[in-house]
Amino acid sequence: MSVEDDGVAGWSRVHEHDVSGSALAVGWLRAIHLLARPVLGVPPDVLTGFGVLSALAAVWLASLGGDALWLALAAIVATGVFDGLDGAVALRTGRARPLGAVLDAASDRVTELCFVAVLLVLGAPPGWCAAAAVTSLLHEYIRARAQAAGMRGAGAITAAERPTRLVVTAVAVTGAASAPAGTPWTGWPWGTTCAVLGTGLSVIGLAHLWVGVVRAFRQAG
To answer: I need a surface site. Which of 22, 65, 97, 218 has the fewest CB within 10 A?
Structure first.
């Protein structure tokens, strides 16, 4: 088994959810483990910190507008890469620890609030930004509480997982950079369109997750 395949198995073991049947997840994990090779000497917590800094930089760059939006897009992508690298390095070097997992989860929530802030500076109304933030945080809170109560695994992999939130934000920035007049047909700012889209996906994800949580506890007896 290659290191990259072992990384897929390791992720599935740590999260107690087998992703070997998902071509997208397997491809992403393999790519991250390849990228992790040159940074195995960097402490995972440092990589986590870089992810937060990248997200903060994305907010600032998005607020500048113009050509800086492309740099904001690069910062958003970097946030996702660092988010994967910290776990890959921890797994491959045996430095995974409970405190690191807590730090990683906290940093994920901070970066997701940064994604919402990007939508805000791209023209999304504060109300829609609040809805996007609340629904995404509730998604993770329900899963965390269910796991604390004894649920094994993720409950369900929904349409509103962290990669989806990153992609929605990246779409908003790309759209604002390439078509600043707004989204086709609606004319809405890209921040508004993506805040509405993100909130809708989060609501769907919440319903899916709740069904998964209920099923998991019923099966556990």
So the answer is: 218
